[in-house]
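Subject: Interface between my chains keeps coming out wrong

I've been trying for a while to get a sensible model of this assembly. When I model each chain on its own everything looks fine, but I need the whole thing in one frame so I can look at the contacts. Pasting all components below, labels as-is. Any help appreciated, I'm running out of ideas.
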Amino acid sequence: MRTAIDTGGTFTDCVYLEQGQLRVLKLFSTPSDPSSAVLAALARIRAGSAVDVRHGTTIGTNAMLERRGARVAFVATAGCEDTIAIGRQTRSQLYDWFAPIPECIVPRELRFGVTERVSAEAEILRRPTEAELQELAEALRASNAQAAAVSLLFSFANPETEKRVEIALRPLGIPVSVSHRILPEFREYERASTTVVNAYLSPLMRRYLLDLEERVIAEHHGGGVDVMQSSGGIVSARVAADEPVRTVLSGPAGGVVGASRVASWAGFDRIIGFDMGGTSTDVFLADAKLGGVRRTRESVVADVPVSVPMLEIHTVGAGGGSIARFDQGGMLRVGPESAGADPGPICFGRGTMATVTDANLLLGRLDAGSFLGGSVPLHPDRAEQAMREQKGVLPTAEEFSAGILRVVETEMVKAIRVISVEQGYDPRDFTLVAFGGGGPLHACALARALRIPTVLVPAMPGALSALGILLADVVRDHARTVMLPGDSIIDLERRFAELEQSARSEFVTEGLVGEAEYSVDLRYAGQGYELNVAWSALAPMNSIAGFHSLHQQRYGFSEPQKRVQIVSLRLRMIAAAEPYVPDRSDPVAGDGSAARYAERPIYFDGRFVASRFYHRDQLTPGDAIEGPAMITEYTSATVLPSGCRAVVDGFGNLVITIGDAA
Amino acid sequence: MTAQSVDPVELAIYRSAVHSVAEEMGAALRRTALSPNIKERRDYSCAVFDSEARVIAMGDHMPVHLGSMPMSVEAAVAAMQFAPGDVVVLNDPYAGGTHLPDITMVLPIFLSVAAKPSFYVSTRAHHADVGGMFPGSMGPAREIFQEGIRIPPVRIVRGGTMDREMLDLILLNVRTPQEREGDLAAQIGACRVGERRILELVEKYGEERLGMLTDGLLEYSERLVRAELRQMPAGEFAAEDFLDDDGVDDKPIRIAVRMKLDPRAASIVVDFTGSSAQVRGSVNAVRAITLSACFYILRCLLGHDAPATAGILRPLTLVTPPGSVVDARPPAPVAGANVETSQRIVDVLMRALAQAVPDRVPSASAGTMSNLTIGGIDPRSGQPFTYYETAAGGMGARPRLDGISGVQTHMTNSLNTPIEALEYAYPFRVRRYAYRSSSGGAGRFRGGDGLIREIELLAPAQVTLLAERRKFQPWGLQGGEAGAPGRATLTRAITGEVTELPGKCSVHVDAGDVLRIETPGGGGWGALAEGADGGR
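Reply #2:
Try treating it as a single job with all components included. I did that and got this:
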């Protein structure tokens, strides 16, 4: 049985296919041992034997955030031991004299040097002697390191010495991560940092994943566990145990893939995703014609650069729990401080500071009865009184609330501009896909501000991440920095063949059959950043042409007469997931009156307007609802301002057309 | 209409919108520029100005540009009769610039029928070479004419069309014209991004409302800074500090300040009377730099996300003696002041401020950007190259906190160039890049350590150094010890001889020679307890 289980902070979501039908199960997470909720879910759904479990986990992310990884030793080219701590020598806050001291995950006593050197031209200038390597191994042994990361200068160009170091460290019996395998690309700090994160997470993740797989196999007589990577592709638990750095953001990646799939079933290929939670909001942009969500290799996880491919997700520190206050100059500020889960918003009963959630409640945008199925009692009177006390110079608590929403929505608009306008995309060409607890509440307002014509609120918003994991392809990314002149684009075949040979043999070991996708990172000679374009042996020059036009699109100019440099080769091995398209019901035109349960005032543009309230789970395909209205569901609610019209499509999604305000 | 009619919500939304214009300009510039100095090290700034050339938004880029970019725009406005579609370029420190490598572009934005611009957008970037007697244009010159091409405010784009003749004139005077052309084009492109975004705001708000919001934003900044000043103790606080020398003779250069705080008027007077007269070497600061240092200090007193607008400077009265090292007059050379004297001016201001509010001010940080320029011919390609980079040092210890080691402080925050990027691009081999242990000043809280960087040259080259804090170490406060002074040595390949290099020099080196730079540590804070181990 094909099953996906995504472990979140509160819920463990399980999505599975039973006789071609998609089903969802939600259990409470078990933070002390996340695998027990996973196994419980499998038992509940009667997964039976030979179950194929795909898993999204936050263990890696949490270990990074809480700095609970292994005691990791770092081995560098002698003279460069400190580079892992120096980083790029910048400070994170320009104008804060009291910024905390950043703590490197490799403390000084665990940084080791090896006397060696490779040149930029891949020539070995100095080899360490066997005695020196033995000495290094002894020093590491004495340091009580639990894992080691080896990253030597230009090792991607010539890995010989790194391999020798790896062999010398093998007798220590600790996991050793080497940079030419984890990230064979230039820029030593980012490569070293990625390798160190891998080593840091390695003992923990290895234990967790291999143990989980063993238990699944034992309880279900075979089968196996696969893991979601931050890049949006699946790998086996064994590979993930060796390269945990690739799975460090597996949860958000599932959400992105899930949202993109649901949108594409509904006929929307160009989307901007908007996932608003309690303390933060994720946004991303996906264009199916350009291969879906862009991947980036410039991510930072818990203040540490991680340069393996990750889906490009932009996060801002604003969500439902963000606190509103007036600053010394009298300006209304919302966030980044958050009331979090404890004490939470005022209306949850314990908080005392006005939050976005309180503002939504005061303006009639939260239905106390249906909020989390009524399981969390809300305290509107408490919120109203506190908001009146905190409204500052604003005339009413309602105007204060409306102000809070406008400010937080401005931050969201800004976040979406960063991933669209700043990258050369016009948001008007996209559909806004809203999910998370707060996404559907604010989506129509954002769409109006950005002139996005359509909003999609997916069916199953609470299980999008697990759904994405279930439907993702198996993917392995390989890369190598080559630094060649652009003319060499026509004879990369041999280099790609080498890369592909090892990639294929690894796939075969895993029992997979797949396709290879080739691409190259190009730049104009002298530039500091690269663009990734497809490459094919049949028409290699197309890569160069593609580079110029992508440069034009992204940066507004191109210089076809200028020299191009080939920085890195990239190879993706893809084993496509079994295709799945959900059943589509034929829409029957209706007005949703069967799902209507109330008429209450909602505050829009300066006044309360009588609005109809609907239960989402009672709507059927073809139902059309005109704003002003609110459509409530278990984990969220969709606010429909006047001028907007929502239609339930054949998959149960809400497709909202954004019109002008009446 | 007064700013009181701008409500707290509108203000927040406008602030965010106009700030994102500056940020989007910065993103465009970073993405389109050619040179590593702009792309990788991010040595640039972008800003938006109102019709009276008052800055209303600046991206969080380079602090040293805070006060000096507005002066560029003022100079361009004073010199020019703008027409729609124009872009003005300038770098003359004596007409709105700071030092010649910083080239500024100003684009006026005209609304429908207006006779004069309603807004200006501006970009500034540090160019790796603008000609002159030393590759990299940062060398020890004696007059500004030796430092590179000097561009007064002139049009580089007229009516939307690039003035090719003006561009050719500039490009003929620099060592790496292709790279310059790419970077200049990127700056113009970023200005156009800013223009588009401002026009969108005009469409959204209407011109009149926009004017009110702009006034409201400036008054908001003023209120923020005055609220801080009201909490300061009343009094006059004097301090001095010194630059080691000007690279010509050995004489220390005095920078003196009297800072008068008046909490009742919520005002501050900063008077540099008593500072040394301008000198022959290149460390003379034009007034724009001194103003930037004051802007930076005021900005640091506010919350970290306060907008950097002209309103911040309203409570400030700045007095700089003309012809002094903090307000130089032509033809004094100025290349080093942007990077070195600017840091020292900040140090002096902090030293004065520490007397007023001791628990809010850190000890001196490295106080030098340890500028290194190397030029020559790359034997691998036969092409000339120019490399420029600054090196971080130790941050001064803070009340309650140690300083950070090996980090850019105060007026700069540029990134380092990765060793592997460096060795691909230049005939160098980096032999060492490490913390300089024990260089931070001891104290109850310890100053951050400086850095060591060793570079082996693989081809003959001209090496130019511009560094400070060799004689006058980064000071500690409240009994904390000073940070270690900076140092540089050159090891000759043929003789094995090791020579100490002075802070400011330009020397010819041969293939195989090794240059070693050690940057200063930060000062300590607070006396060590009796019998403590030195704070290490």
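Reply #3:
Confirming on my end. The first strand of chain A starts at residue 2 and ends at 7.
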